Automatic annotation (TrEMBL), chain A:
It comes from Deinococcus piscis. This is Protein-glutamine gamma-glutamyltransferase-like C-terminal domain-containing protein. The keyword RNA-binding does not apply. The keyword Transmembrane helix applies. It comes from the Bacteria.
TrEMBL record, chain B:
Pfam families: AAA_3 (PF07726), AAA_lid_2 (PF17863). This is Magnesium chelatase. PANTHER family: METHANOL DEHYDROGENASE REGULATOR, MOXR FAMILY PROTEIN. It comes from the Bacteria. Residues 47-186 form the AAA+ ATPase domain.
Amino acid sequence: MHFDARWGTLAYAALPLILWPLLPAWAVALLAALYALAARWPRLQPWRLALGTLLLTALYLPAISGVLAAGGWLIDLVPLFSLLVLSGLALWLVERAAEQAEERDSRAWMFLLPLALLSPHPLALVSLGAALLLRRGADDVALQGRGQPWGHRAGGRQLALAALIVVGILLLSFALPSHSLLGQVQTALWQASTTENPSLPGIGGCEQANWTFVNGQWVSDNGCQLGGGGALQQEDGLKTASPLVAALGGPTGRWLALLGAALAAGLWWRSAPRRPRRVQSAAALDSEPDLADAGLFTAPQPLHRVRAAYAHTEAHLAVAGLVRQEAETPAEYLRRAAAIWPAQASALATLAAAYAPVRYGGGITEAQSDAAERSAALILAGSLPAAPVFSDHSTADRPRSERQGLT
Amino acid sequence: MTQPGTTASDPHSSAASAVMERVQQNVARVLVGKEDVTRLALAGILAGGHILLEDAPGTGKTMLARALAASLGLDFARVQFTPDLLPSDVTGVSIYREGQFQFVPGPIFTGILLADEINRATPKTQSALLEAMGEGQVTESGVTHALQQPFVVIATQNPVEHEGTYALPEAQLDRFLLKLSVGYPDLEQEVQMLGRLQSAHPIDTLGAVAGPADLLAAQRAVREITVSPDLQRYLASIVSATRTHSRISLGAGPRASLGIQAAAQALAYLAGRDFVTPDDVKAAARGVLPHRLLLNIEARMADVSAASLVEEILGTVPVPVEAVSAVAQAAPEPTAAG
């Protein structure tokens, strides 16, 4: 069965939770609702990135007045806002990776969520993992224009984008304003949200909070936010984080992140395309064609591999003189081919049986996918005599069983 | 690793499909060489529709209905439609008894109703079936009575003899999901049939291989069969083409689109798949569309059949497949070709 749409919507809605330490609960809830709506109504997807970024930006608009009130310059906020934009971009990248993986009927993207929870730099590593999922396979090149997320762009662009996010987040964490200035900004924010202590000086209100190190920033559970690392925390004598947060923010968290990254790399390696090798001779394929020898179907997922196999076969048959009519179904077309080249009938039937579930909404097993590729390789390896010219694929071409029983 | 949606991956779905396979095999004991029309008729039932069988006398229309009813374990009633048949003869009548009116259900309160030679009854009687077929209920003397579920009408009519008949109105025709023809058997099939029916007719001993609960469960499962969005667009394009065809004065309506989708889902289910293919859509369209089309005068003068126009449309509407030209440009000539 398909990945249930309701669970899919829930999973997408859960993605913004990785921003939980950075944003107030209501902002995370709004983002979750936005992502859930976009999952439910794909028409909203083009607006998701813009709306998400707008929300993040609007969230920090009060910081402008805070900086001005503290005697600072607006340019001091550029790194902070850049960090926010990068966060939104990383979240969008994760979302696209999930959608694309789902389109390929892969659940490998599920590893993104635990990785996000384990990592002290969730967005950085998760966006990198997302980019790995989004990389193009050989069949994406072959099937370009069929709704691939990256269209005609080069295959490494998404990796470059993820790397940019990683580097950007790391660099910006050091480029953030001095802790005192940012402290005042956050205090201003905090003051705007509560009237209990309207005249707190400096970062005073933040001292009693628990601090978590996330994405190169120290964030507190009452909304305060600081740049810098653990040393800064010690300098300011801030309250020590909870044991779990401290553990995740320390060496243990880094090891866990490393483990998550290794897991991501392993999953990526497992689904990586096989290296194509040049076929020495067609005769070698006649007996037992090797998938790698075919050198054509190197997509990471069986679904794409079968689609590529079908497309190559149809192109090959067209060269041999049998062009599929636009109103002809793949099954009809391959049956017609089998009638002309009976020696290929078995391979054509196997390919037809594998292609239908892939193209029209079902699924397929690895074994079926392999069989389809073997069949396609056999068809491609065989030298087909020229097909007789067909004027069309009218009723007469259809098997009798299809014509019978209908008025 | 098994990808989701693998064919027949759901054990419950597979088991239900196997039940329907047994139904088809059971019907095949009675009807020789009519597996295709049996499959289509069963698909119509699984899709929750009603079926109109149009063919010459003696081709097995009644036998198909009886065999389906027996195999599915449904109650079966047969009404011979004649010009003097009244609506109440079908739906039931209220009788004054013991100081009050009591409703006496008609033969329509059954699982499968065979409306034999439906076009021999008057339009008034034919229309009595409308509510029952459309809404699964009968209203008599202002009181609504629900029919049992599942409820299927299998009607027959003779396409040759038109004297003393009343052609079914468009609204009535639209209520039939599929219009099928049983067709004559070929020589070998007829010889086989003679041998099989020599001593006794197997319909008399045909037992049920499924029950109403199985049918209801299968009908629910059919609705879960996947129809991809581009196939839905393909399906809608076919129906839309009937509205713009130069030889069709009245094309098929949205109910036809729904009918094709439901029938295609049922055909996919019977094939053991959990997704619809364009072949299912085409097969369904051939049964769903023709009787819903009103041909213009030129087409009728030229003796063009609605089925042939549907075939023409199916031969022109593009099927959603891979963009092979893009592949051919992007990928090098296959090295496997040597």
